[in-house]
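Task: sequence in, structure out. Protein: CTP synthase.
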Amino acid sequence: MKYVLVTGGVVSGLGKGVTASSIGVVLKACGLRVTTIKIDPYLNTDAGTMSPFEHGEVFVLDDGGEVDLDLGNYERFLDIKLTRDNNITTGKIYQSVINKERRGDYLGKTIQVVPHITDEIQDWIERVAMNPVDGKEGPPDVCVIELGGTIGDIESMPFIEALGQFSYRVGPGNFCLVHVSLVPVLNVVGEQKTKPTQHSVRGLRGLGLAPDILACRSTEPLEENVKAKLSQFCHVPDQRAHEAILKVLDLQFVGKVPREPKLVEWTERASKFDKLKATVKIVMVGKYTGLSDSYLSVLKALLHASVAMGRKLVVEWVPSCDLEDSAAKETPEAHKKAWKLLKGAEGILVPGGFGDRGVQGKILAAKYARENNVPYLGICLGMQIAVIDFARSIMKLPGANSTEFDPDTMSPCVIFMPEVNPEMVPEFEKAGLSFVGKDESGRRMEIIELPSHKFFIGVQFHPEFKSRPGKPSPLFLGLIAAASGQLETLLQPSSNIVNPNPMPRFPIPKKTIYHAKKPLDSLVNGYFANGNVIHT
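Result:
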């Protein structure tokens, strides 16, 4: 097993996750099987309870693991399926060690950071790195490890020590360190400065790790003299990253590894993206709109679909609170701006969320889309609020609500389990709302559709987690197609649009009964074309 460690210096937010994912893509394009591990030094055992404002989106894996958003990047870039064990946190490591101590596994020894915590980290990495993630038998060839945070952080120290030991454990030729750093440009002189990177590398070396490669971020491409200076003072080669990595890992002469990575698919996709001119405007209505990373997978799914449909994506962010009637009095300018953006939408998307703040604004967004025939996609809570709006507006149940927001509502159209109240489903369907996807018991409503509408879909699950650059989610593909006037073309049997991704993602049940009702079904049908789904 070969290991590539990606660390970061100078400042946080430099793009270690994208760097790690890109390295994985290049190695995969060289013919190697790649897996990934993300290390998060925080004490939480996982990201499930963290606010999106704290850490961005919580990405959900096939096994239900709630993890850092970088694992979503890995899955999208490499088209792999990871598990919760691919995300290591300080909380998980300490919890594992304490559990072993309570069982007596350490035979009465004093438990210390070194060696017990550091050994646990190394053992965890070695164990998880051997698990195949690409659907094939046998262990991967290379494991790319990303260490979260910045070199010098106190909370990262046990991991730095463990990884230093780990480089000796696996031996020369099996460990490559890529350090991501910042090369700032001072406006006063307009010169690219290398000192921050030099100091970061010196600090890394002082902790027992020496970088083999530098990945430098700057506002402009690095000048040749800057590259030469960094190469000289930090003792790293200049350019040709894949060759440098293969050389450090003793892989450059392995028979199955081509000298040049095959990146034609990626370069063609990038070229297509750069040439896009016609736009499609999607309005995102949510409560965490102040931080785009809160909806990262949704944004990526929209981007994948937009490129596939030949459109340049324009996303307008609307805080759901600003749409509410109370905002007209409290923040009139924000209220006016929010409604102006909503009314200029070519498509409306209401993503998942929880809590009652801003819910009324989301209901109003769904109502506007329904009444004005604007393409609409509601995900999780976005589906539930569409049901609430339908109950209030069409079925004349003004008090209709979710028991999450009003436990005493007289018309509980959404309940804790199974969500949409199954007792009210016949009334909904009689009024014109179709429940086209259900679980095998027929009680859990998974997909709603408004047959009289151009495109009005709500889903209880999260299709954004399965979208890939070359295989966009069909539900997002449908939204973009409807918003750009291409839905009929997309639904033609002869359509050469990229094939929809057929795999649903947690938390959709193991079996979903899909009831075909209208032409749009051919799009949604493709989403459920796998062994876990029953077609009727």
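The first strand starts at residue 2 and ends at 8.
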